[in-house]
Amino acid sequence: MNREETLLENVQKVQAALCASCRKAGRRPEEVTLLAVTKYAQDAEVLFLLRQGLIKHVGESRVQQALLRWTRPDFAAFPTVKHLIGHLQHNKAAKAARFFDFIDSLDDFSTACLVDKHIQPGRQVRGLVQIKLTSRDTQSGLPLGQARELAKQLRSLSRLKVCGYMAIAPQGADPHELKAFFEPIKKAFDEDFSPKEERYLSLGMSEDFTVAVEAGSTLPRIGSKLFA
Ligand SMILES: *Cc1c(COP(=O)(O)O)cnc(C)c1O
Q1: Is the Cβ atom of 39 under 6 angstroms away from ligand 1?
Q2: Which phi and psi (to 5°) does residue 11 adopt?
Q3: pLDDT tens for residues 124-135?
Q4: What is the pLDDT of residue 138?
Q5: 85 close to ligand 1 (CB < 6 Angstrom)
Q6: Could you tell me if 34 and 55 are in contact, meaning their C-beta atoms sit under 8 angstroms apart?
Q7: Going by fewer Cβ within 10 Å, which terminus of the chain is more open, N or C?
Q8: Is 222 in the pocket of ligand 1 (CB under 6 A)?
Q9: Hey, whose CA ends up nearest to atom 13 of ligand 1?
Q10: Could you give the angle at which helices 3-25 and 43-51 cross, rounded to 10 degrees?
Q11: Which residue segment(s) compose the domain that 103 sits in?
Q12: Cβ proximity of 87 and 140 under 8 Å
């Protein structure tokens, strides 16, 4: 198989697994949006999947790297929805506000306010508050209670529209442990964001997205399973 055939097969496998998880959980596949994480992918690989019309929501970890790639004319020609999934530093807030459609990693009130301030008039940026699931200091995000508090505080912003939660599960957790991590987040999500409004719950990466979708994720973030 050549590289393009491999990429096509990867996408098909991921989509089939997403559908199977939806079926298992009694959910409709349309409720789930694939967020393709492109941070490790080569330009040619990403362009190939864009040309095939197979990816629309794309995620990058770093502001500067995302700008370099997605402002190039060959990338900018595609109508993508761009997500920042990595930690947002205060000094990158203005740049991020002007470029991304979604900031999925909000965990700080003053940075979020700075983003809101720099979004161009007439434009809206969606924001998710990141929940921290481990006590490791290196992970960004907030413990669930504080994350819910921040989501409530940010409701007053108008250009940055907070509409859900994001979380990264600990590596190596088994499906049973993963369910235990995801369940309280899904419960908080349902209490804090009504199904009648636009809302997103971003749980699951390459290694755990099937469990995450069964637990209610609407926006799994998948990198290595697509670009392996
Ligand atoms: C890199 C990254 C992903 C994708 O991880 P894979 O295991 O390659 O699917 C998802 N979410 C975040 C926040 C990431 O930084």
Answers
A1: yes
A2: -60, -45
A3: 999 999 999 877
A4: 67
A5: yes
A6: yes
A7: N
A8: yes
A9: 85
A10: 60
A11: 3-227
A12: yes
